[in-house]
C-alpha cells in the first residue's frame, strides 16, 4: 500500500480511524462486535493473538481489540488487520476458516489477513458485501479453488493482493475488469498458465500503477496491436519475473508508456540483445533482467540506458546472462545504488579511472572473466557489498579498500590476487561482517598485537597464507558463525583459547594444515546443524566428543586412535556426512552403531584398524550413497541388510577379510552403484550374472579374491561405460550441503583408490573421478575365454584380467576400446595372435601381455612399439619390435649414419624433442599431426624407425 493511499484512509472524514486514542465516548457497534466474535470462533488461535477479543466488561469495546480500528465519528469497524507481521511472529499464524460473519462488517475499507493459515479453504464469496472495501490482502493464506466471481462486486477496491495461494483452473481474469478503480494488483505465485487475456489487465484498469505477476507460469504473449492507445498513463511498477516469457514481451512493454519506474522481467526465457527503448524510460529506478539468455555488449547497453535514465536509475540487475564486453564507467549513473552483472561473460579490467564519486551501495561483478587489478575504491564511499569472486583478477589488493567505512560484505574468493594483506587493508572497516578471500595466493601478515576494527560473522580464508603460527588476531573475533582457514600453511599446536569457540559457530574448517595436539570436547561448541572439518592434520589421541546435532563431521587423515564408540552414540537424524578415514582407530563397531542415522549420505571409515563384522544397522541408512570401509580388518559376509540401501552409489570394502560369495542382490538392489570395489578379500564362487544389471557402474573391482568360473558374457550391459561420450554428471562424486549459517555451502568429494600394477592411485577431485571407467578382475581363479562382449564397453579406460586361468584368443575387436589407457592381460593362458586392431589403441599408457602363449608379429603402431619388451615377455613365439626376436622375412634396418648423416642427426634431435613433447601433452592431440608430418618429411620417417628399432633392441 502506497503512503499516499494510507494517508487517504487516515484522513477520510467518513471512515476515519480510531487510532487507539479514543475519548471513550464512541464504542463499536454491537452487531459488528458480535460479527467479530463469530469470526473469531472459526479461527484457531494457538498463540493467543486474539486474547484481547472477549466478553468481559473491559473488553466490550471492539475498537480497542488487537488489529481493529473504527471510525471515530460513527464507531463502525473500518479496518481489520491480522496479518502475521502485525501479530508479531511469522512462525505463529492464525489457523482455521474464515467465518461468513466477516461479511457483516459493511463499513470495512481495509482488510488484511495475509500469511495466516487457511489451508484448503476457498476464497470467500463477497456476494455484494463489503462494497466500501478499498484494500484487500489475502496473500499466502492457502486458498484453493477458482478465482472468478467472488470479487465481482468489490467496485471500490484500490488494492488487491491474492499472491501465493493455490488457485487452480484459472482460465481468464475477465471478472477482475469490474474492479475499475484498481491501482495495485498482485496475483504472484498462482498458476495462470491457461490465462490468455492477462495482457488486457493493463488495458481494463486505467488507474493501475502496480502490477505483480511473478511466478505465474505465464507463457509467450502476442501483444494487442492497439494496446498502446489503451494503456494507462500511470503504470509504474511491472513485475513479470520467474515466468516462461520469451523476448516477445519486450514489444508489449514498449507499448506501455514511459512512466515505468520499476521493471522486473528476471528469470524468464528472454534472448537476444537488450532493447534500447529502456533508455527512453526517464523515471526508471529499477531494471531487473537477471537470469535470462540475453546477449550483446554491456557497454553498448549502458550507453543506450544513459539517454534518459542516467540520473534516475538506482538498481540495475543483469546477472546470469551472456553479456560480454568490458566493465564501463558506471559512475555516470549518478543515482545508481546497486549494480548486479554477475555470471556473465565480461572481460577486460575495471576502468582505470571513474568520472565521479559514486553513491553505489552494492557492486556485484562475480563469476565473469575480469582481469587486472582493483581500482581506487575511495570512489565508492557508500559501498556496503562488494562481490568480485570467481574472476581472474590479479595483482595486489589495493589498500584503498580499507577506507570503505560502510563495507559489510567482501567476497573476493577464487581470483589470482597475490602479495600481502596487512592492517592497512582493514583500518576503517568497522562494519565488516563477511570476509571471503578463499583460494587466492595471498599472505595475511598482521602485528601480533593487532586489534581488528570489526567483529566478523563469516571468515573465509581457505588457501591463503596465514601461518606458520596460528593467527592470533582470531582471538579477538567473538561472534563468528563460519570459519574456514583450511590449507592456510598453519602448523604446530592449536592454542587453548581457540577451542573456546564463538557461541554462534555453525561451520568450522581447519583442514589441510599441520595442526597438532589433542582436540578437546566439542560436543557443546556449536549451534544449529553444524559442519566440522578437522581433516588432514596431525591431531592425535582419542576421538573428541562431537556435537550430536552435526550435519557434517570430517576428521579424516589424522592420528586419532582408539575406539569409535563415542561417534556411534552421537549419530543422529541430522548427520549427513561422516568421514573418519585415514586414522588409527581400532575395535569393533557396535551392531546398532548406525540405527539412528536416517539422514546419513556418506560414511567413510577407510584406512583404519577396525575389525569384526560390518554392523547390520548399516541397512538402516535409507539415504546412504557412499560407504567406504577400505583397508580395515572387517570379517564375515557383507550384511544382507545392506540391500535396503537402494541409493548406494559408492561401495568400497576392499582390503579386508570379508568372505562368502559375492551377493547376487547387489545387482538387484543397488542399481545406482557407480563404484564397487571388493578387492583383496576372501570372496569365492562365481561372479553373479546379476552384476550385469549395474548400468551406472564406472568401476568394478573384484580383484585379489578366490573367485572362479567364467567372466559373464553380459558386461555390455554396463551402459555408462559403453557410451562413447563421457558423462558430465558431477553429482556422482560431489555432494554439497548448506550449513545452518545463511547461504554457506560446503562440499564433500568421494575418494577412489585404484590399485594397478602394485601401485595405489588416489582420485578425489572432479573431473578425475569422472574419467574412470575400469574393470579389474585380476588375481582370481577365472577360467574360459575373454567374452567378446567386453569390446562393447567403448568408454572403458582400464581393463585388468591378469593372473587368472583365461584361455583362448584376445578378442579381435579390442581396438574398439578407443579410450583404453591401461590394459593388463598378463599371466593367463591366452594364445593366438595379438589382434591387429590393438594398433588403434592410441591412448594406451600401460600395457602388459606377458606370460601367455601369444604368437606372431606384434602389430605395428606408434604406441605398442613404445613399450618396453617386458610388456610382452614370456610369449616365446612373439616377434617384431619391441621384442628382440625378428619375424620371418624381416631384415634388420641399417644402423649408423647414411649419406644424409648430418641432416639426420639434426632432424633426429628435432624429432626427439617433438616426440617426447607430444607424449607429455597427450598422445590424443599429436597422433594425426604426427602422421601428416611423416608423410611430408621422409627423413623423419627414417629417424622414427631407427628410434623404435633401438628401443626394441636395447641399442643406444
Automatic annotation (TrEMBL):
InterPro entries referenced in this protein's UniProt entry, alphabetically: Leu-rich_rpt, Leu-rich_rpt_typical-subtyp, LRR_dom_sf, LRR_N_plant-typ, RLP23-like
Membrane topology: Single-pass type I membrane protein
Spans annotated as Disordered: 887-907
Primary location: membrane
Pfam family, one: LRR_6
Keyword DNA damage: no
Xref: PROSITE patterns: LRR
Annotated ranges, domain Leucine-rich repeat-containing N-terminal plant-type: 31-71
Transmembrane segments: 914-936
Highest taxon of source: Eukaryota
UniProt keyword list: Cell membrane, Glycoprotein, Leucine-rich repeat, Membrane, Receptor, Repeat, Signal, Transmembrane, Transmembrane helix
Localization per record: Cell membrane
Signal peptide: 1-16
Similarity comment text for this entry: Belongs to the RLP family.
Protein name from the UniProt record: Leucine-rich repeat-containing N-terminal plant-type domain-containing protein
UniProt organism field: Hevea brasiliensis (Para rubber tree)
